[in-house]
Amino acid sequence: MWNARIERIRSEIETAEATRSEAEAKLAKIDSDIANADAERRRILDEARETAASLKTQIVAKAGTDASDLRARGAADVDSAKTQATSDLQAEIAVLALGAAEKVVANNLDSATQAELIENYIQKVGAGS
């Protein structure tokens, strides 16, 4: 009877040791999985930081380029508008000056002076032929 009891206790101890070994192996696997997951988390975070830094650099560079292009287009538009305004103003001044000159000439020419100018013009045209 003692032998059976000793054998049963020995069997339970062996079973407990086997269970303990399995539990320790599972715990080691879980610890390893946690360490791997932590390493993967750090890798993903590092990669995300690098990607974010790269995107930030690209966005800032593009914004700078876009701003420069916008400034250049704005300056070109201003220059074009200035040139057009100057041209329009010169044309308006020419029209006004011509109108004023016509009035001055019309007021200052009498019939005799007009006839003399016409005669001189005809002679010049005739001499050129």
UniProtKB/TrEMBL annotation:
Parts forming coiled coils:
6-40
* Entry function: F(1)F(0) ATP synthase produces ATP from ADP in the presence of a proton or sodium gradient. F-type ATPases consist of two structural domains, F(1) containing the extramembraneous catalytic core and F(0) containing the membrane proton channel, linked together by a central stalk and a peripheral stalk. During catalysis, ATP synthesis in the catalytic domain of F(1) is coupled via a rotary mechanism of the central stalk subunits to proton translocation.
Q: How does it sit in the membrane?
A: Single-pass membrane protein
Phylogenetic classification of the source organism: unclassified sequences, metagenomes, ecological metagenomes
- GO cellular component terms given for this protein: endomembrane system; proton-transporting ATP synthase complex
Q: What organism is this sequence from?
A: freshwater metagenome
> What keywords appear on the UniProt entry?
CF(0), Coiled coil, Hydrogen ion transport, Ion transport, Membrane, Transmembrane, Transmembrane helix, Transport
Q: What is this protein called?
A: Unannotated protein
Q: Which CDD domains match?
A: ATP-synt_Fo_b
GO BP term, pick one: proton motive force-driven ATP synthesis
Its family remark reads: Belongs to the ATPase B chain family.
Q: Which GO terms describe its molecular function?
A: proton-transporting ATPase activity, rotational mechanism
Where is the protein found, in the record's own terms?
Endomembrane system; Membrane
